[in-house]
Amino acid sequence: MTDKSPSVTIRDVAHKAGVSVATVSRFLNQNARLAPDTQSRVIAAIQELDYVPEAAARNLSNRKTNAIGLLLPAVGWDHFFPPMMRGIEAACYDSGFDLLISSTHDSIPLRPGRLPLGEHNTDGLLLFTGSMPDAEVIRLYQKRFPVVLLYSSAPQSLPIPHLVFENKDGSRKIVSHLIEVHGYRRIGFLAGPADNEDARWRERGYQEALARHGIPYHPEWVMPGNFNEENAYCTVKEWAARGLDVEAIFAADDDSAYGAICALNEAGIRIPEDVALVGFDDSPTSRLLIPPLTTVRAPIQGSGYQAAAMLAELIRTGATQEEVLLSTEVMIRSSCGCDKPAGEPTGP
Fold it and tell me: In angstroms, rounded to a whole number, what is the distance separating the alpha carbons of residues 56 and 260?
């Protein structure tokens, strides 16, 4: 990791931004709200000069923290996060690191050199997808600060270690199951967030399965679920009120499937007799539903463990695997119309 140049001071930042030293100090210490134009000039000056406050620079050069940081976006603690966290915590314990956790918020911009977690208080960062702008990821990489990306590939194809699920293959297989085994051709899709890499690959798998079976793609059959139970509930409730025109629904994650189940039950639409439903993730609750949910199993807890273990290895040795692609499998239960025992996977 490259040390900061001692020639870059808070006075340099103030001069570059055309403000007083006191204004820059207030910005760095979050003591007062600045006018938007003033804040923008200060941020631009900090970025251009690559300035890190003196206290942070001293921490960087003088000590190790023996801590790993996990940065999460401002998301609800749904069914996905607890198993992921168990995996991360176990790997940190096994590797002898403490774990620090923080979340980011879209309304509060990340300030260069003033991240809630980073060089000043951790030895490395696990970055959940969407938790940090690409520019900050690139900055950390250029400083050789250890980073592992969770569920997203590296920006600008940089050799930053990252861990992702085999999303497209799992989606293609579960949609193909609906087509080949049950004969469904009108298959709706509850999509994830547009800016989420997992969501994009899962939608691509859905589209590929339709194309391979000669089924036209209908944009009106793709509705927002946003990896959120409440969003999916509202979407499917409105869909049902208009007259559900599909035979099956593929939810891009299990939380969306749970919302869909509530909306379908309220509308008196039976699962799977009137409409089949499948999901993605295989959250612990999915096998306990009535009917049990057919879904794609992603190794959520294992992914958390492996990502944290990769980061620990990177911190201690300076190297780890650049990309880990975790396989997925379809878990056949009753919500798709099958009578196999709960939890029985499909064949290859």
Answer: 48
The full 3-state SS of 258-283, as one line of letters, equals HHHHHHHHHCCCCCCCCCEEEEEECC
Q: Are strands 276-281 and 124-128 parallel, antiparallel or unpaired?
A: unpaired
C-beta neighbour count of 55 within 10 angstroms = 10
Asked which of 28-32, 198-202, 211-215, 300-304 is least confident by mean pLDDT, the reply is: 28-32
Residue written as token pair 């629904």? 249
Extract the tokens encoding 209: 């399965």
Q: Which residues make Cβ contacts (< 8 Å) with residue 62, sequence separation at least 6?
A: none
Single-letter amino acid, residue 114: R
Give the CA angle between residues 224, 226, 230 to the nearest 5°.
90
* Distance in angstroms (rounded) separating the CA atoms of residues 43 and 113: 10
**Which regions of 91-205 does DSSP assign to beta strands (E)?**
98-103, 124-128, 147-150, 162-165, 187-191
pLDDT at 44: 83
What pLDDT digit, counting tens, does each position of 89-135 carry? 999 999 999 999 988 765 455 555 556 787 888 999 999 988 888 88
Pairing of strands 344-345, 329-332: antiparallel
Give the pairing of strands 323-326 and 294-297: unpaired
Give the orientation angle of helix 36-49 with respect to helix 10-17, to 10 degrees.
Answer: 130
Burial of 237 (0-12, 13-18, 19+ CB in 10 A): middle
Domains of the chain: 1-63 (1.10.260.40), 167-298+329-345 (3.40.50.2300)
Helix axes 10-17, 21-29, angle to 10 degrees: 110
- Do the beta carbons of residue 300 and residue 83 sit within 8 Å? yes
SS3 103: strand
Phi-psi region of 265 (alpha: psi -120 to 50; beta: other; left: phi over 0): alpha
Q: Which residues contact 216 (CB under 8 A, 6 or more apart)?
A: 210
Is pLDDT of 65 > 70?
yes
Find, among 243, 345, 242, the residue nearest to 294 by Cα: 345
